[in-house]
Every structure is written in structure tokens, then in C-alpha cells.
Here is the input.
Amino acid sequence: MESTTNPMKRRGVELKFIEGTRVVSANDLQANNITPYQVTKFYRKQIIAGGYYEQLKNIVEPSIAEFDSPGSLDTSGELDNTVVPGLQHKYVQTCLLLVTERCGSYCRYCFRKRIVGKVSDEIAPDLDLAAQYITEHPEISNVLLSGGDPFVLSTANLNSILDRLLPIHHLNSIRFGTKMLAYEPGRFEDSTLSALFQRIHKAGKTSIIVAHFDHVGEISCEAEQKVRALRAQGVQFLNQSVLLAKVNDDADVLAATFAKCHEIGVRPYYLFQARPVRGASHFQVALGRGLEIVRGINQRLSGIEKTFKYIMSHHTGKIEILDLVQDGRVYMRYHQNKVPEKIGKIFSRPFVPTACWLDDLPEE
Ligand code: SF4
Here is the structure.
């Protein structure tokens, strides 16, 4: 380990932030767990040409606010649910496999700031061990490949992961969580990907790409072409978005995003409440405002377009945020929970105008 008194680490350099330049040292960056800066040329060009730079720059450009945003680096209890290195098993039927710590660009709001852009021991070091765990748990029906972004890996690497997963009979679907359709849609031009998806289908399993479009301005013509081509090969698409202050905290923007997703065959799935992540909690929108936005989205969409749930991915489970009622309470329901009996049960907490997370609402 390098000494923290190393003068090279203490000496500051001038770095660019949204608010202006600031002199920071390697020690400052490390102590505040600041995610490295990385954005693809494609994304930068897309957000400028699309006319949404002012909102979308907040997704990828570092902000000085990252030094002062309180929170946790593991808001969903991922470490507690890690069953073998790199494999999480929180909900009965689903496993999550962390396959890389790298992404096309780094989202400043990422809830895996403790992992992305770093060298992390949370990435599965032994795929055989992970596959063995899944094989021994017949209740697991689906695996989500995540990280990081699985599509930064080569297709050969992805095939090697599938070598372990496809022989497991009780798996019925393989999901890929990715923002590469926004950051680098050219990745999906790789002709060998077609064979990869066909392998999944021939093994009798469904392939699902969970795209990550937070804003209609991220859905480029190139992304649309790639989605349509992969759909024609039998790949299913869902979309998840995060509700983000200054980016998409607007019913018009999110309704347009979900309508566009629906138009290209990507089913809006989750709208996540941003988590109280250390270094990213400035992206949170208060729950009361979030519910207003969700109501506005639903008023703007047709029945078949409103397939999303407004979700708080809490360490106790995935909580659907339903409504703020006249009795002054926020009503919620467990969409997923480690304890199956709790799923679907509606519960409520007294409303607090500044609350952004379940823990900000008093128990009675
Ligand atoms: S692409 Fe996903 S994993 Fe990577 S930084 Fe963005 S939110 Fe985090």
C-alpha cells in the first residue's frame, strides 16, 4: 500500500468540474471515493447534437458536489447478499453476477461507486464457483450479468461466462444489465454477438437486455437500429431509468423517454428512486416530488406504455412507491423481498417533505 504521506499523492492538480476548476490531490480523490472520469466520444457527441447537453452533462461530468454528498457505498446491502465472491443472491429466483468493474462511461450517480472504475475484489474471480452455487440452488431461474457493464467485455469473454451458465437446466433466462446502448451502441455491431444470443436461445433460455436510458436524449438513431436488429434475433428488451435531479426530474422528459422506449420495443420496467449513495446523494429527488412526476408521466402515456414501476431498491427489498394519500402517509409495497410472505403487502409511513429514502420516513 502506498503511503498517504507520499508528497506526489498530496500535491494537487487542477481538475475540471461542472462548477469550474478545483485543485485536488490523489489523496482527496481517494478519500472521497471519487469515480474516475470517463465518457465515450459517441455519448458526448450525442448529448450535444441532441440538444440536451445541459441536463445530460450531469450524468457523466464530475461535480464538486460529489465531495459533500453524504450516504453509503452499499445502499442495497449487496455485501450481505454475496454468497460466493461476485455472486449475489438476495431474492429467491434471481442471482446477480458481477462480471466487470468497467463501463463505457462512468455515471456520476452510480450506486456501485465502490466498484466501478476501480480494481475490486467484488468481481467474480471464479466463475466455476458461481456456477456451482447456482447449480446447487434449483430455485434460481434467472441470472443478471452486471458490474460494471458486461458489454465492455469481449464477446469471447461473455461466451466463456455462458459456458458455465447455459448447462444449468433450471435457469430460464440470462439478463444483461447495460448502458452501452447509450454510451457506445457500436458495440452491438459485433457480428459474433448474434451467435452468442443464438446460443442462449438454443439452450432453451430467454435472452434479455436491460437497457439503461435515463433520458430521451440518450436514445440515438444508432441505439434504435441496434435494438431493432437484436429484437429481430429474438432478444427481449427492458429499460430501467434512475430519477435524477437536474437530469430527468420532469414528467415531460420521462414520459417522452418511456414512449420512445415503447416505440422501439424496449419495455419500461423500473424507474428507480436515486439511492443515498455517498458522493451521489445530490442526485436524489424528494419522494413527494417523485410521486408528482410519476403521476404526470402516467397522465401522458397510453395504457400499454405505462409498464414501469417507481421503485426504491432498499436493503430490505425492492419497494414500489405507490402514492402520497390525504391521510399524510406515503403508501408502498414490497415488489421483491427476501421473505416471500412480505411481497405484495402494502404498508405506509408518515410523509416527510424532505424525505428521499425509506429511512427518512419515521416508522409511525
Ligand atoms: S453504466 Fe451502470 S454500472 Fe456503470 S457507472 Fe453507469 S450506472 Fe454504474
